[in-house]
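Aim 2, interim progress. The first record below pairs a target sequence with its structure tokens.
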Amino acid sequence: MKEIIFRFNLVDSVTLYPNLKKIIQAARRRVMRRHTKMKKNITTWSSKLFLPEDIVAQWARKDLLTEKNFKAVFEILSDCRELFTSEEV
């Protein structure tokens, strides 16, 4: 808190302290919600894509796998699996 007040040269920091505390707590809650949602997505996507969670997590962190492009990634992986299984026969 003191670091924020010092870094941004906030005037009358005593009266800003409660407001800053609320802002920081709200930001932490948003971050925690985002992390929780991402963990749930990774678990769900992992089971649907038949891939290990660590690989799905890496793709999600690199923005290669998102909620918007999940369907496309799923179709691409399905096509690849079909291609590899048909060659083995």
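The second target in this work package is listed in the same format:
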Amino acid sequence: MKTTLLLLFISIIGFSQTTLIPLGSSWKYLSQGSAAPTNWNTSSFSDAAWSAGNAQLGFGDEATVTPQVVSGSTVITTYFRKTISIVTPSNCSVSMVIDDGSVVYINGVEVNRFNLPTGTILYSTLTPTFTENAPVTFTVPASVFISGSNIIAVEVHQNALNSSDVSFDFKLLADIIPCSSSTVTINAGICTGSSYNFGGTNYSTAGTYSNVVSKGGAKKLNVPFGVIRWDAWYDSYLNVANPSTYNDGSGSYRSALSFPQFKERAPFFANPVPYNTKPMAYWNTATSSWVIDYRVNRMQWNGNNQAIYDQEIAYAIHAGIDYFATLWYRDDAPLSYGRKLFATSTNKGTLKEAYIIESIGGGASYNSDIAQIVADFAQPWYQKIGGLPLIFITEGIVSGNPTLLTDIIAAYGGPVYSVYQPIITDGPTSWPTISSKGFNSGNWYSTWGSTTHASIMSDEINIRRSLLPYSCDVVPLLTVSFSQQARRYSPPGGPINPSLYSAFVPRATDSENEQQIDSLIDFCNSRPTKVKCALAYAWNEYDEGGRVICPTRDTTTGLPNTHMIDLFRSKLLTSSCDSTTILNLTVTSPPIAIANITGSNIVANPVLGATYQWINCATSSTILGATSSTFTPTVNGSYAVIVNLNGCKVTSSCVNYNVLSDFESLNNVLSETLFYPNPTEGVFNIKFPTLVNNLSYSIKNILGQTIKEGVFSNEINTIDVSSFTNGTYFISIESGRLMVRFNVNK
């Protein structure tokens, strides 16, 4: 059988004009012949004692008869109130029927005055002219609304004490984002005997499964909301021979997140590796050396997978996120995997993408990199602001490439919406120069330097406000969390000063994160001409961000922990509509994966319909371009092939490829072999100048007794002699071709 995973999750989001208050609605009203309380038009006033009726309200011609005569005199002013619960709308417009004049308030703020004089309006104020059911239309600024309950209040005035009628009716229209109808298609495969988690349930048999999930909903934020997406979560393993190469942007982070106190940060697609099967490494600051550790049950993950990436898109949409702000890297960099997966996703456009430029090639690569970047600007899935492609450029890149923005604009052939992005919180010192550098807006990458989450929130607010006086726009940032502690255990880039990774902020509470989101919404919605989009740090910087938005792996259940997704959804979206996700699952029997050396090649057994990927067993990393059934290594080593049949992957046993040239004879190899440390306290290392294949060895004590035997098949080999008693020993390689004396001194 073969397997196909089809996960449906479409998003088609658009604006529609919605009638929030139709003509003929029910209103509370007060007609008592005197002024209403001073707070009558605010939420602090209770209208429980007021009368209620359906508009058109008033008395006289063409109105529902509601007598308003008190003590034999006509009531000059009648008061109307209505409470509506909405999200912050946009493009709001009002149509009224008024006889004779009116003042309209929303949440206590006057938004329109018709046929009444300027200045203070009293209960006794008469209209200067007579009108007969006059149609009144006007627009309302979105900033006067709040998310939740809103008070609409209208006072209607007469033209004369002996007026024969009064009329009132009211209609409110606005643009809101309706519930979304969404589909994300995920194609993946599983092998017989394995399972696929869908909606919190593991499925291992073929069939069609459905899961009703809540998504869509009206948005509370009036601007596109993005998240910074980093891409270090691909497949990489430790090379014991050279631990510093483990810090390739994935291996070191996996190592750091394998420690028990940080496992809760691991990606939702992470899995534990059984004890003592793969080593991990960390930098020992006390000894200034690498420690190779087999004892920790390490985590492994490979986010370079279309099904996983598409699941991330589904999670982001569910949270109310509009776009990924992806850190852009060249195609030949492993950190470009995420960008490539977005490009190949059938769901791009459901969620949009914009680029953060923090690296760019030099020389001829500079222009080709720019050409590749701007080629995506015209794509329908690329995030636009006012029709212009959105692009973030970090401060460091601008410093090294001062013409980068103008070069991008020239290559694109038109304007872009550019955001200047300092990498740390010294941004305010850069604000005065943003416009002179040609940027539309200012932003910052993350909020550092704080010791509490409350201070992070305070810093964010202050930095946003510090940008307001300048002519540029503001792209406000929300830093969900920041903690670099995990990097101290396995730092990227090799040995470092531990103080560089000492930043630690205690995890934010749900209440703190909710306050942050509310603050962001209020800031954005109240400044529509200054704020065009917003950004959050971070989606998936698990090791540095600490508490990220993308789901992590629950350490108890092993299932995705969607707590932050649900929290953001509850704050960014209103009540939502249900949508059904469909899983079509079939199962494929595992293919046979065998690799054999044939001459100077390594050949995989043929499997009809399968694809191949060769890997280096020493590092467990994939070999670029090695995707056919035949592989010719360029260096000696240990290699295996991954056979992929419809998503069911099986890895062959490793094959030791050791084709030595004439000058690399065994004697020459042995003459350059290193033995260390000598004396040793428990571990004895043998380092060959090249990879060897099944070289036999034996260890004897001073009496000639054989203590240990085995074979070497790696460039660096480690022998555990911790059980040896103190004394002198001899190691013999290939029946005495080389013999070395060493001492054990514990």
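Residues 74 and 162 are 6 Å apart (CA to CA). This observation will shape the mutagenesis plan for the next reporting period.
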